[in-house]
């Protein structure tokens, strides 16, 4: 069957060179042309034309921090790759980077095979993998080059969670192993030893509900771990990525390290820019509504929210991802009703990230800044640019047509994430993905899926 050329006509195109009116031409799985001012009418003969006047045309958004169809030590996440990438696409995200995770006693190759088995053939959006390392040994070290050959150039380690965390020497060795090809290490920065002890103390004080969660993971636990990572990066010269930064103290550690030449990338998430720790005191759902916000790191003080928002505006944040790790309130999180330590950690967000970010910063940032935070930053950081993250001839035909005039309300009843709540219930969103293309195929229109599943694995270099 002959490929039909698609033309996105009359939008405001968000390109590496700036924003201008014009047309985008899609042929097969690639962007064939970006035409300032637009094509002549005669050039549209035989094309499928989409009128996108009044819309911003972005390269497809990238969520570089998700956990789909994953066992977290407590339970399986609610979203599979099928449901999670469908929801992502409905919101304008055309590529996720998920954390394939090596369990203790498992090889990296086995972990990668398991994630491919879960994802391949099921996805609406494209998918790449970071490789999370939980069992560092000589065999794991030898597999690093195999991962690189498989298109994985970013890795993850943890300073918290007993079943996942590595010690400082092991973390240093991982950094040394990935430095030769300029790999990047993403790190969950919380001091796990302190968290374990503080959880015990908080529970023994009789605080058993969700409000115990932030008390047991104070900002010092994050900042100390970020500082430790900064020194390990300085020692080895390897690149690092501080994931889900949630505190002003942690932000200050990154700033100080950058002053000394540390190559530290910085990620934060919508929840740390919009929500604060008063949510743990919510008394709905039979007094257990605060469990919706049990994620690690936890929601923080309003002063932390303000500090991170200032950092976004100052250009200090490289990308905003979600840490999408969904668990149902009923049947999963409520297993910890008598003990906050047993509430599965994580929350949903992959569907709503673009709308949340563009609404909350609509008076302060423009389309170029949104493009960097939601697409280009992650593409550059993780070895996908300009194949992804650029609206340019030759780039992949992953495109989000964004209608800034749309008005709608986020709610669990209408979302596509396979979870029974959203932390953003009732949020009045300004702007919505009108059309979303993955590999040149229309996968979502006005927030609803078309049923196409063209998502493919993204090997990175």
Key features of this structure:
461 residues, alpha/beta, Urease, subunit C, domain 1, TIM Barrel, 2 domains, nine-stranded mixed sheet, eight-stranded parallel sheet
Write up this protein:
One of its GO terms (molecular function) is hydrolase activity, acting on carbon-nitrogen (but not peptide) bonds, in cyclic amides. Residues 56-443 form the Amidohydrolase-related domain. Keywords: Hydrolase, Metal-binding. InterPro entries: Amidohydro-rel (IPR006680), Hydantoinase/dihydroPyrase (IPR011778), Metal-dep_hydrolase_composite (IPR011059), Metal_Hydrolase (IPR032466), Metallo-dep_Hydrolases_sf (IPR050378). It is globular and about 75 Å long. The two termini are 32 Å apart. It has helices at residues 81-91, 108-119, 138-149, 168-178, 192-204, 212-215, 219-236, 248-259, 270-274, 284-287, 302-313, 353-360, 367-381, and strands at 6-15, 18-27, 30-36, 48-51, 56-59, 61-66, 93-101, 126-132, 154-158, 184-188, 239-242, 264-268, 319-320, 399-409, 428-438, 441-445, 448-449. It is an alpha/beta fold and 461 residues long. It is built from 13 helices and 17 strands. Helix 8 links the parallel strand 11 and strand 12. It has 2 domains: 6-58 and 388-449, Urease, subunit C, domain 1 (Roll), CATH 2.30.40.10; 61-381, Metal-dependent hydrolases (TIM Barrel, Alpha-Beta Barrel). The longest helix has 18 residues, at 219-236.
């Amino acid at each position: 069957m002959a490929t039909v050329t698609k033309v996105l006509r009359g939008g405001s195109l968000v390109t590496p060179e700036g924003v201008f009116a014009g047309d985008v031409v899609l042929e097969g799985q690639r962007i064939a042309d970006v035409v300032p001012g637009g094509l002549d009418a005669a050039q549209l003969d035989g094309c499928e034309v989409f009128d996108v006047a009044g819309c911003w045309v972005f390269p497809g958004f990238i969520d570089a921090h998700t956990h789909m169809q994953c066992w977290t030590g407590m339970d399986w996440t609610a979203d599979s790759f099928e449901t999670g990438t469908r929801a992502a696409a409905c919101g304008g995200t055309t590529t996720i980077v998920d954390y394939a995770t090596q369990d203790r006693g498992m090889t990296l190759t086995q972990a990668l095979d398991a994630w491919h088995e879960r994802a391949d053939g099921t996805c609406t959006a494209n998918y790449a993998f970071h490789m999370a390392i939980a069992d560092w040994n000589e065999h794991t070290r030898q597999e690093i080059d195999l991962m690189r050959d498989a298109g994985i150039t970013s890795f993850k380690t943890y300073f918290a969670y007993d079943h996942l965390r590595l010690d400082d020497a092991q973390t240093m060795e991982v950094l040394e192993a990935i430095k030769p090809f300029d790999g990047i290490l993403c790190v969950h920065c919380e001091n796990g030893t302190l968290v374990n002890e503080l959880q015990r103390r908080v529970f023994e004080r009789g605080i058993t509900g969700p409000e115990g969660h932030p008390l047991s993971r104070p900002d010092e636990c994050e900042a100390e771990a970020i500082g430790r990572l900064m020194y390990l990066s300085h020692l080895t010269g390897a690149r690092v990525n501080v994931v889900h930064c949630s505190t002003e103290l942690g932000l200050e550690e990154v700033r100080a390290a950058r002053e000394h030449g540390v190559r530290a990338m910085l990620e934060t998430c919508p929840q740390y820019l919009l929500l604060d720790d008063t949510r743990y005191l919510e008394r709905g759902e039979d007094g257990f509504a605060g469990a919706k916000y049990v994620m690690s790191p936890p929601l923080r003080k309003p002063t932390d929210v303000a500090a991170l928002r200032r950092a976004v505006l100052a250009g200090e944040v490289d990308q905003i991802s979600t840490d999408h790790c969904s668990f149902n309130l009923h049947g999963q999180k409520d297993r910890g009703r008598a003990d906050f330590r047993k509430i599965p950690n994580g929350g949903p967000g992959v569907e709503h990230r673009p709308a949340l970010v563009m609404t909350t910063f609509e008076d302060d940032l423009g389309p170029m800044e949104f493009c960097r935070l939601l697409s280009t930053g992650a593409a550059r950081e993780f070895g996908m640019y300009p194949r992804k993250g650029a609206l340019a001839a030759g780039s992949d035909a992953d495109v989000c047509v964004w209608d800034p005039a749309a008005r709608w309300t986020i709610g669990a009843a209408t979302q596509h994430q396979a979870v029974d709540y959203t932390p953003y219930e009732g949020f009045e969103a300004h702007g919505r993905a009108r059309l979303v293309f993955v590999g040149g195929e229309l996968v979502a229109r006005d927030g609803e899926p078309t049923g196409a599943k063209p998502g493919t694995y993204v090997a990175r270099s």
